[in-house]
Amino acid sequence: MRQWYDGFNFLGDVNLYNPYDVLLYLKNRELRNYWFETGTPGFLIKLLAQKKYYIPDIEHIEASDSILGTFDIDCIEIETLLFQTGYLTIKRVEHLFDDEKIYHLSYPNHEVKKSLTDYILAYLINNQVEKTRNQIAMYRALQSNDLDKLKDIFHAFFASIPHDWYRKNQIADYEGYYASIFYCYFTALGLDVTAEDTTNKGRIDLTVKLDNKLYIMEFKVVESSSDKNTALAQIKQKRYHEK
Fold this sequence. Notes:
45% of the residues lie in helices and 15% in strands. It has 11 helices and 6 strands. The protein has helices spanning 2-5, 19-28, 42-50, 65-69, 78-84, 110-125, 128-143, 147-159, 163-169, 175-188, 230-237; strands at residues 61-63, 89-95, 101-106, 192-198, 203-210, 213-217. The strands form 2 sheets. It has a 3-stranded antiparallel sheet. Strands 4-5-6 form a 3-stranded antiparallel sheet, covered by helices on one side. Helix 3 (42-50) packs across helix 6 (110-125), helix 6 crosses helix 10 (175-188) and helix 7 (128-143) runs antiparallel to helix 8. The chain is globular, with a radius of gyration of 19 Å.
């Protein structure tokens, strides 16, 4: 219950449970996304998509008092909206000079991380049946360590994106779009996912844990045949597996 519903922190020192979730869990004795079942954050998700927000960055946002406290709806920042609506919470407060504070924000708990990324994924894909089918196939591929199957699933998905999207949005050159899709797929499955995982050699774009397996992922936009193996080369060169 703590993993699913605890973790909200608006003061910087005390964590709070979501009381609505706790009451429904005690009534039904079932771990579910009770809070998210009451409504869909459509405006927020459209804003994330329109601004091409790098979704894995939601896990580790740094903000000041001015960002967290603004109420100007005409120029509200995504980070402000995420915090004020409860999708982000304070994980740590860093004190700088002149009593200036930096707030380190992230998802409060498993429910919010899993559910928000699932809604974002549904918006990006716009096909609920295909999304669910891919998620089931993906989980089975990870369980059986079938990387060829995993590659086929993502290849089929990206190949299905209408050519018009590429022409208008230039997402073929937008590395963050593809990384966000991968991140949302794995996180929405409830897997243990870490974005921008820091090592002593650099940052791993994405790590995914399932049972006793850990997958290391690096994202690169390939513009020529000479770029083909740069992602794998970086993983090996920086010895990301050591962590």
